Amino acid sequence: MEVPAHLRYSRDHEWLAVEGERATVGITDFAQRELGDIVYVELPAVGKAVTAGEALGTVESVKAVSDIYAPVSGTVIEVNTVLSDHPETVNRDPYGEGWICRLRMSNGAEIEQLLDAAAYRALVGS
Fold first, then answer.
1. Taking burial as the number of CB atoms within 10 A of a residue's CB, which of 43, 87, 103, 105 is the most buried?
2. Beta strand pairing call for 8-9 and 22-27
3. What is the average pLDDT value for the chain, to the nearest integer?
4. Long-range CB contacts (< 8 A, 24+ apart) of 122-125?
5. Whose CA is closest to 76, among 94, 99, 110?
6. How confident is the model at residue 1 (pLDDT cuts 50, 70, 90)?
7. Measured between alpha carbons, how far is 58 from 43 in angstroms, rounded to an integer?
8. Cβ(68)–Cβ(80) under 8 Å?
9. Residue 96: other Cβ atoms inside 10 A
10. For residues 69 and 12, is the Cβ–Cβ distance under 8 A?
11. Rounded distance, CA 118 to CA 98, Å?
């Protein structure tokens, strides 16, 4: 299982890559493996304001439908439209081309509430 060291992680299995006040959100390698083959991704609307812990959208697999939660508060500024036609991209490349959305963070201090790679590995037991 891949857990990149430069990312932050939520206990709900989302990852966050921070660049200034912008943050890219996706689901972790652990999450996509647990879900199995992803067949649909419901993306949030650009312009939507979200609070940390609030559902951004959903991921549907052959096994289940799971919510995607905002790891931090902010406004959705971009979504990965590739996932509309190719949801399996999340399985193939969860930390790259399989990103879900980008946020303009409203409270950068929330990043400190997220897990680093070592803590996330401990959470998922690897």
1. 103
2. unpaired
3. 96
4. 123/9, 123/11, 124/1, 124/13, 124/30
5. 99
6. confident
7. 7
8. no
9. 10
10. yes
11. 22
